[in-house]
Amino acid sequence: MATKLHKLNDIDYARFRDFIAAQTGLHFSEKKRGALERGVLEALSKSGHVSIKAYFQALMQASDQGEMDRLVTLLTVGETYFYRDEGQFRLLQNDVLPKLISERMTTTKRLRIWSAGCASGEEPYSVAIILRELIPYLDTWETLILATDINRRSLEKAAEGKYSQWSFRTVPDTWLDKYFFLSPNNKFHLSDMIKNSVTFRHLNLKSNVYPSFVNNTSGLDLIICRNVAIYFEQETTGEIMNRFYNCLVDGGYLLMGASDPIPPADKFWTRNHSGAFIYQKKSQNFEIRQETRKSKPIKIQFSQNTVADKAKPIKPPAPVDLLAESQALLEMGQPVLAADKLAAKLQADPLSLPGLLLMAKIEVACGRLHEAGKWAERVIKADKLNVQAYYLLSAIHQGLGNDEKAIEALRKTIYLDKRFIAGHFSLGCLYKKQKRPAMAEKAFKNVVRLMVGRRKDEIVPETNGITYDKLLQVAEKNLEEKE
């Protein structure tokens, strides 16, 4: 049985301080000595070792990885919540991510994001929700949201996706209804659609295992590492900043906490957006697009509703009919449940075109693009004038990498409805991707022309919530960037 200790002597404190710093990068100065002592002594009491000396030797010899994990857990208990630091998240949703989305929309349709030091998962899940709000047909994109932490217990909690009301202090008030379910024990369960879009991995930032293709820490567009570097010494922070620099693509972004050290000026530009700072990787091959753009900044944002102070009980959708219930389940991120409901509807009414089209959308949400294409084709076979079916089919072809078939489907949408703005816009994006500037220019000009007389705050049909004003900004930007 371990000897009951209330504090470490100076020698033991120095030993554990230096050992923990070497293993994890965490630095416990004299001011934080109490926190170190509490963590070490609690870990000792649970370890079964009879003395502080025996416990330290076991850690040094790495004879029990479980003991090291327990110590790290007790030393890194962090408090976080969804949408933490509203200014930084508004920077992401209104500026940084829309810029990246605009650039990739007409090229790779690929985004790679790393939440380093993700704690219990609220940060990467917030990013996943923002991407879901910003990108129409997100499932046709290749996206990575990697979330890592040194605390294995925090990662286990994050992977469960279950949170108490305390985690929702500053979330946009639409998030709860759309992306969470309230369980009988008053836990908020994250929808599978969001939960499955984040990859959780154990990673020690002190280690030299990154950047690496193997663990998805290379070729990143954005790294979020907030309120982590404050626990490191300057030398360790410098090593981490160098690795982050090498993890990012040219012009990639690094978001740090307000209290974290500023990344080195020789590697990163500092960007200030309404008091929120973000850092951008310097490169000889990278042009500072933000300073040379002539178009207005793209700001795809949430509605201006007041941020909810407290989480509210979630009301399930009113059961109108099986089709309406399926649609509601899909919108709340439960495509499997939606498919089950819809199957009953289609069994009773196998020729329901809205039902067939919804099943195609559900298959897209599940990532089964080939099956989704078959359902869309069934709609078209029954109704060769169905613009929505052709438009969905174009998105499916894009997701499968067949741009020519996608263009063919889009041309049919605007043949059937010359005022179908989403079709013109998607054509412009595809033509730009294929380096057909004349065709792209014509398509984007059609978008601008069709915007005349539209209310700016109205939603463009088939765009998953993008307003006319925001889509107009993107179209005008593409026209101004034309050579």
Summary tags:
49% helix, 7-stranded mixed beta sheet, 20 helices, Rossmann fold, 3-stranded antiparallel beta sheet, alpha/beta, Serine Threonine Protein Phosphatase 5, Tetratricopeptide repeat
What is the multimeric organization of the chains shown? single chain
Poorly predicted runs are 288-312, 314-320
Kindly provide the radius of gyration, computed on alpha-carbon positions and rounded to a whole number of angstroms: 26 Å
Class computed from helices, strands and strand pairing = alpha/beta
Placed side by side, the strands forming the largest sheet appear as 6-2-1-7-8-10-9
Number of strands: 10
- Give the helix tally: 20
* Beta strand %: 5-15%
Largest sheet geometry = 7 strands, mixed
Q: How many domains make up the coordinates?
A: 3
| CATH architecture tag of the largest domain | 3-Layer(aba) Sandwich
Question: What is the assigned CATH homologous superfamily of the largest domain?
Answer: Vaccinia Virus protein VP39
Task: Please identify the top-level CATH class of the largest domain.
Answer: Alpha Beta
- Assign the CATH topology of the largest domain: Rossmann fold
